[in-house]
Specification:
alpha+beta, D-Maltodextrin-Binding Protein, domain 2, 2 domains, five-stranded mixed sheet, 42% helix, globular
């Protein structure tokens, strides 16, 4: 398979691994405790109608975290928009995701930040509660966008307190990758789709494929993402539907974590596999099977001689499910000072959204149905294959601060169990207690 090269996966890892620090930093800039509802003060009708901008010349500051190989794809779309819209100048600024989420609130408050930006799905409620971003219901209605135009899971996830804060651009799920050359040597001609098939493939690879440790389970990234997917597959969830209580210490959570640990116990994975080591091993053909983000397809494509295939995550539990995130367009409170910026923002969002097949080539699944249903998208083998998982995507609840809870709680518990330092039930129970306290603190902080 030969997908188009994209960014290093490091940017995604830095983003997800830095959320706890970001939450502590940006909380200082929050307007938490205000009785003013998020989005208040946005003039009615300010965004206008239609997908074009007809006002006077205006400049838009556009910030995002596309610092890797995905950046040129977005920059090209920005340049195309500017050329097609001579009265609008969009200036794109990129930062590492961790820096981005730390800097945006203060920059917006001072008037030196972005007018329009990109945010991950689990950051929308937090930044809405902090009055950093504004509702986009009028953007959606002005562009005649409804749930029927998008994958329902990502459209619904952009709503906080009955208002829409994100216009979804893409979805990026976990995928299942396999060294097809090693599978063939072991007598397997198809990627396994269920628990029995997956476990049989591991044994066959050890026996006939000549791979002593075919499935490396990491102690850090992406183990907590795998855990999230598995919990849903076994019928559980990370949090309750309201995001007020941790539920990852359920029977589903324990079974998920014990299943991951079992590959170390039975010798199919080394112990103490560090961050990204499993991906490096896959490049070097020292392992055969790995679960990682869709963006990794481009990393494998760079390796000469590596024969590989991609598929949806195998269904280890009772039903299919996968972890995923999503990039969403947002408009900041800074832009509300100029109605022309709001109208131009609507036109820019529409332009990129309609042309998100170009963004898909960077290693993403477009959120818009019309793009995913196109022949051009069908011609992208990995993206179109992993898009079949969209009905089974797991997103966190839309509550402020939810992204700050992961690292010190269930991610830490997964790490302890994978390293053999704790039993699954005890580690998850302790982490759930800590998560409940953090969730309560967030409710008080954001008055949510």
């Amino acid at each position: 398979m030969t997908p188009t090269p994209m960014s290093s996966p490091l940017s995604r890892r830095l983003f997800l691994g830095s959320l706890a620090a970001v939450g502590a930093t940006t909380a200082l800039a929050a307007c938490g405790g205000s009785s003013t509802p998020p989005g208040a003060g946005v003039p009615s009708g300010a965004f206008g109608q239609g997908d074009t901008y007809t006002g006077p010349k205006v400049a838009l500051s556009f910030w995002n975290g596309f610092t890797g190989g995905d950046g040129p794809f977005m920059r090209q779309l920005v340049e195309q928009f500017n050329k097609a819209n001579p009265t609008v100048t969009v200036s794109m600024n990129t930062l590492q995701w961790g820096d981005y989420y730390a800097k945006v609130p203060n920059a917006v408050a001072s008037g030196a930040g972005p007018d329009i930006g990109i945010m991950h799905i689990d950051q929308l409620a937090t930044n809405a509660a902090r009055r950093v971003i504004i509702p986009l219901d009028e953007v959606a209605s002005g562009l005649k966008l409804t749930e029927s135009d998008f994958a329902p899971v990502v459209w619904k996830a952009g709503v906080y307190q009955d208002k829409r804060y994100g216009i979804p651009l893409d979805i990026h799920p976990l995928g299942f990758y396999a060294n097809t050359g090693q599978l063939s040597k072991a007598g397997i001609d198809k990627l396994p789709t269920d628990r029995a098939g997956f476990e049989a493939a591991v044994k066959a690879l050890q026996a006939g494929g000549g791979v002593k440790q075919p499935f490396w389970v990491t102690a850090t990234w992406p183990a907590h993402l795998m855990f999230t997917a598995l919990v849903a597959q076994f019928g559980g969830s990370i949090y309750d539907a309201e995001g007020g209580k941790a539920t990852f210490n359920s029977d589903a959570g324990v079974e998920s974590l014990e299943w991951l640990r079992s590959f170390i116990t039975n010798g199919a994975s080394p112990a103490n596999v560090s961050n990204d080591a499993q991906a490096q091993a896959f490049r070097q053909q020292r392992n055969s099977l790995t679960w990682d983000g869709i963006w990794m397809m481009n990393e494998w494509a760079k390796v000469n001689g590596l024969k590989w295939g991609a598929a949806a995550l195998p269904t280890i539990g009772d039903k299919p499910a996968t972890w995923a995130s999503s990039h969403n367009f947002v408009v900041t409170t800074q832009a509300t000072k100029d109605k022309n910026k709001l109208a131009a923002s609507r036109a820019f969002i529409s332009y990129v959204s309609e042309r998100s097949i170009e963004w898909a080539k960077s290693g993403q699944i477009p959120a818009r149905n019309s793009v995913r249903e196109s022949a051009a998208f069908s011609a992208l083998p990995v993206q179109s294959t992993l898009a079949a998982q969209l009905p089974n995507v797991v997103f966190p609840p839309a509550v402020p601060g939810i992204g700050d809870v992961t690292t010190p709680t269930f991610e830490a518990a997964v790490n302890e169990v994978i390293l053999g330092k704790a039993q699954a039930k005890a580690a998850l129970d302790a982490a759930a207690k800590k998560a409940d306290a953090l969730l309560a603190d967030n409710r008080a902080k954001y008055q949510a």
